[in-house]
UniProtKB/TrEMBL annotation:
Biased composition, class Gly residues, residue ranges: 17-26
Region spans: Disordered: 1-26, 459-481
Residue ranges with Low complexity bias: 1-16
Cofactors (names): pyridoxal 5'-phosphate
Name the record gives this protein: Diaminobutyrate--2-oxoglutarate transaminase
EC number: 2.6.1.76
Domain of life: Bacteria
Length: 481
């Protein structure tokens, strides 16, 4: 059974004031936000769309400095598998602190690291765990992506890389290349299958088949200009790309394509891992066993931790070939081991599959009444709602154009109602829901109720209405015309 918490009472909304700030906490809150805007870089992101100052949190709920409570469906961009400050995580951290164990150990062996690695291997696909190595990287997922790219390039002696349109693998140079955020001639970007905006205009199984054939032809055509690469990296569900699940058959096809050509397959499970999609690891939906898995976010139990796990035959590194000062974060390993064990023992992946399907069903019902919802999709508790401008003037368009302005308004209206959501997709037109795996049925209903109310309010704000009534336009002394 998942640990649940009472759903907080709906906070009163203050129109036009994100978060509905109270007068008591408003002054201090505004001061903190003002100083942040003056001191922090222009690259800050979440702080712009979510102008709140969290001071306490537990489970799904965040309390701001203004005293308002919010239902957090961002979960640290998927980092908080168990929500905020889960008791098992706090106990694991406290145990390490009270033990007097060193907190910084580089890559030395410790009992805490051994326990984490043992628990991690217990959750991996058995065919990988039986013959795997693990590399502790820097603290972020993008560091693990860089390590994976370096690993396969070292092991194969090749430099090229295959990645997919819409991908997101991090913000460092190599990760940006793989994500399409930079131009690196060593990276070849391939079509990622999707139904709603299929790159081939057909969607479904046919679209996935064409995407697979495209990849095969590109690799096998001696005139394609693409030499055999060092690896292929993909997300089983594209998160930042708009919550687009890869078809299971296509995943198996990519595994077959890469295996037949001795191309290591890298699965980026930074956001999809630890039960998020309804399986412990998202590759398990398709039965695919990758050569390399990139893991971060939830594996640290809310603290910074990133690793890659890979087949031993790829372990061609020399000592020191990939290092980093903060590879031995003992608190993160303790919190991570506790999180992995809790998700596994309480079957929270199964819970995510069941509850996620129920939430998708209700959102799809909502779409039937709201033409601005172009598509509802996801897997487990990784859900996306794409918002569109339905009255398009292009009769040949496969789907209505995305409406990022409406999506931003929905996000603001959600915040006014005490609900934190994120935006994603090509043009930030997809509202994303990433609640913790401990979400209760009652909390799920509260999330959906607030989202539905916010959507209706955003629609009203964007929809041209009838002209306002003006008494001066009516002659009250005679019959109206």
């Amino acid at each position: 059974m998942a640990v649940t918490e009472p759903a907080p009472a709906a906070p009163s909304a203050a129109p036009g004031r994100p978060g509905g700030r109270t007068a008591a906490g408003g002054g201090a809150l505004e001061g903190i936000l003002r100083r942040q805007s003056l001191r922090e870089s222009a690259a800050r992101t979440y702080a712009r769309s979510l102008p709140i100052v969290p001071v306490r949190a537990r489970g799904l709920t965040i309390e701001g400095a203004d005293g308002r409570r919010y239902l957090d469906c961002l979960s640290g961009a998927g980092t908080l598998a168990l929500g905020h400050n889960h008791p098992v995580v706090l106990e694991a951290i406290k145990k390490v602190l009270d033990s007097g164990a060193p907190l910084h150990v580089l890559d030395l062996a410790t009992p805490v690291k051994d326990a984490f690695t043992t628990e991690l291997f217990a959750t991996l696909p058995p065919a990988l765990a039986a013959d795997a190595r693990v590399q502790f990287c820097g603290p972020a997922g993008t560091d693990a992506v860089e390590a994976a790219l370096k690993l396969v390039r070292t092991a194969t002696g090749r430099s090229g890389l295959l990645s997919f349109t819409g991908a997101y693998h991090g913000m460092t140079a190599g990760a940006l290349d793989a994500s399409g955020g930079a131009t690196d001639v060593r990276v070849t970007r391939l079509p990622y299958p999707q139904n709603y905006r299929c790159p081939f205009g057909v969607g479904g199984e046919r679209g996935a088949e064409l995407a697979a054939r495209w990849t095969e032809n590109l690799l096998d055509d001696p005139k394609s200009g693409v030499t055999t690469p060092a690896g292929m990296i993909l997300e089983p569900v594209q998160g930042e790309g708009g919550v687009i699940p890869a078809p299971d058959a296509w995943m198996r096809r990519m595994r077959a394509v890469t295996a037949a050509r001795s191309i290591p397959l890298i699965a980026d499970e930074v956001q999809t891992g630890v039960g998020r999609t309804g399986a412990f690891w998202a590759v398990e939906h398709s039965g695919v066993v990758p050569d390399v898995m990139v893991l971060s976010k939830a594996i640290g139990g809310s603290l910074p931790l990133a690793v890659i796990v890979y087949r031993s035959e790829l372990d061609a590194w020399e000592p020191g070939a990939h290092a980093g000062t903060f590879r031995g974060n003992q608190l993160a390993m303790a919190a991570g081991a506790a999180t992995l064990a809790y998700v596994r023992e309480n079957r929270l992946a199964d819970r995510a599959a069941t509850l996620g399907a129920r939430m998708l069903g209700r959102l799809q019902g909502l779409a039937a009444a709201h033409p601005c919802i172009g598509d509802v999709r996801g897997r487990g508790l990784m859900i996306g709602v794409e918002l569109v401008a339905p009255d398009t003037d292009d009769p040949d368009a496969l789907a209505p154009p995305v409406d990022p302005a409406l999506a931003a308004t929905v996000q603001r209206e959600c915040l006014d109602r005490g609900l934190i959501v994120e935006l994603g997709g090509r043009h930030s037109g997809v509202v994303r829901l990433l609640p913790p795996l401990t979400l209760s049925d009652e909390q799920a209903e509260a999330v959906l109720d607030r989202f539905a109310d916010a959507l209706a309010a955003a629609e009203r704000a964007h929809r041209p209405g009838p002209p306002a009534y003006d008494a001066r336009l009516r002659n009250d002394t005679g019959p109206s015309h």
